[in-house]
Records
---
Amino acid sequence: MTRIAMLGLGAMGSELARVQLEGGASVAVWNRTPGKAPSLDALGATRAATPDDAIRDADLVVVCLSNDDATRAVLDPLATRLRGKTLVNLTNGTPAQARRMARWASDHDVRYVDGGIMATPEMIGAPHALVLYAGDAAAFEQHRDVLARFGAPRFVGDDPGRAALLDLALLTGMCGLFAGALQAIAMARHGGVAAEEFAGLLVPWLHAMNGLVPAIATSVDTRRFEGGSSLAMQVLALDNLIEASRESGTDTTLLTTMQGWMRACVDAGHGADDLGRLIDVIRPVS
Ligand code: FVH
């Protein structure tokens, strides 16, 4: 049986520990503030007083803390004691932080796997949870079955920064979705439509628009920006969205940013192109 050390029992770490215990693993848990996640005790967790105690007998050390600073503060003093173990870092971080952590691990003979959790705590262990992994492929394969208890495991490459890159890119997509949804809700509510009622219209609309993303992706890859609605038309249509937004006292930052991107493309002579062309403004071709 794999012996797991779980460092960090926040909202996410406590769920990660729970599914391992329910799956029959031996789990030693540590959290900076003692007494967190008391329900883990009944599931058979071993409470460790220090990170050092938690990792002592572990083959697999899983870390899920607030950020990279916290992770380094906890792991740095453990460097020599982690030697030969697999360290799976599920703390959210940047690709550069993941690569720096991988170098640190390599310097101390620690097998390093970086992870990006594409799930909320309630989703851990449920069918829709996805966890991206990158780094030491052999270490990942050795522990794949155990890691699968968190959610569907997907290894995305040897570059230890790749899971973080994809994680942050996916979260960026989510930010756009939620920001747009909240902006839309604010406008609808100003017009007397309750948020819940409006969500009944909004969700199927966004679902239908999601269906256009693969075509946009193809246009970006092939640099053939034709076939969709023209930017020349859309930049004018945005005037109405912005005006209505202003009339309702709603912040227009999101819409004016989008319109600015469109206008830059139109001014550069790409008014006949579709939305995919915005990629050149968001990330100019070098
Ligand atoms: N919760 C979510 O929806 C998202 C889903 C996707 C992945 N994220 C990332 O997961 C990391 C942990 O998030 P979390 O939800 O568990 O966060 P908290 O509930 O706030 O728990 C934070 C834990 O980190 C400990 N901690 C913070 N600073 C330190 C430190 N300097 N030394 C030691 N431990 C530290 C904190 O301990 P305590 O405050 O209880 O003593 C918690 O255990 C995160 O990267 C998300 O982006 C979650």
Note: The chain has two domains: 3-165, 168-282.
---
Amino acid sequence: NLEVGIVGLPNVGKSTLFNAITKAGAEAANYPFCTIEPNVGVVEVPDNRIQVLTDMYHPKKTIPAVMRFVDIAGLVAGASKGEGLGNKFLSHIRETDAIAEVVRCFEDSNITHVAGSVDPIRDIEIINTELCLADLETTQKRADRIAKVAQCGDKAAKAEYEVLKKVLAALEEGEPARKAGLTEDELPHVKDLNLLTLKPIIYIANVSEDEAGDPDSNPNVKRVEEYAAQEGAQVVAVSAKIESEIAELPDDEASVFLEELGLPESGLDKLIKASYSLLGLINFFTAGADEVRAWTIVKGTKAPKAAGKIHTDIERGFIRAEIVSYEDLIACGSEQAAKEKGLVRLEGKEYVMQDGDVTYFRFNV
Ligand code: GDP
């Protein structure tokens, strides 16, 4: 289960957005494997294909893919030195796959801003400084620990040490580790450190209710977009307040509301889609009379590992996958028709799963 950590300064709209996420939440009974804690929201990943497959198979149960959002409270200036919730906060955020940073772009004189005025770039820099400082400490500690061994000529330690030095150089400049220019070969050396500034990041620009239909009209959103562009990060502009109202409505009323605002989808859907693309995620499906289900994998995942998402036994005993692409299946109208046309392929261990593959795994027990 992919997990995105929501961070931001106090009073920027984190709780409002998080409430929208939990209200829109997935039917918990379908996901017994997710323990739901109060600060965790589980939402369905919007994907029209799952409904089309349901109409084709009439299964007893339909289970969409889900994404977890964790509300990580307690980030204030000084968090890396143990201010506020400090360390507890940092240990929560280390476990997430990506960071969504809420920044306040809405003006409202009734709601105080912890730093006195609305300035999203300053807020981003306050937060990013804390994340860099935390990483600096982690990286320095590790470097100190292995320095001696590396100097004595231990090859593995030396290679790691060189990578750590590269990361430290970036962090000391106040730059996130993702800007240290680590190569594919170098990244594994720092994987276990779970560096915060190596995680992919999305900025959530929180605009006011009356800007919800046209968030780009807010000049602060433009500034956040420019800032993010230099970093190669993404921006999703939402109105947390509007999102929490939408989340209370039944689906059909929510669509009408969105239409009135002139929006093609809710901010929450935009956020999930942006997280998907940021993390390089795709869905494959399993479909039958019992269950139609979407599974999340990282692009480039091979068939056995994808099977392991369903059960480790299926990965271990993997024989082959029977696969039809979603498009072919829909064009043929049924699995049987796709089989007759030779569109259900047999794929082996080296097959790289594609988005929309409708899959049946054969395995030895
Ligand atoms: P947090 O401290 O970051 O969790 O912030 P909250 O979600 O508690 O929001 C702080 C205050 O800002 C609350 O009074 C919210 O109602 C208000 N707020 C959040 N989003 C918006 C918004 O889009 N527009 C306006 N006017 N107020 C908002």
Note: The mean pLDDT is 89.
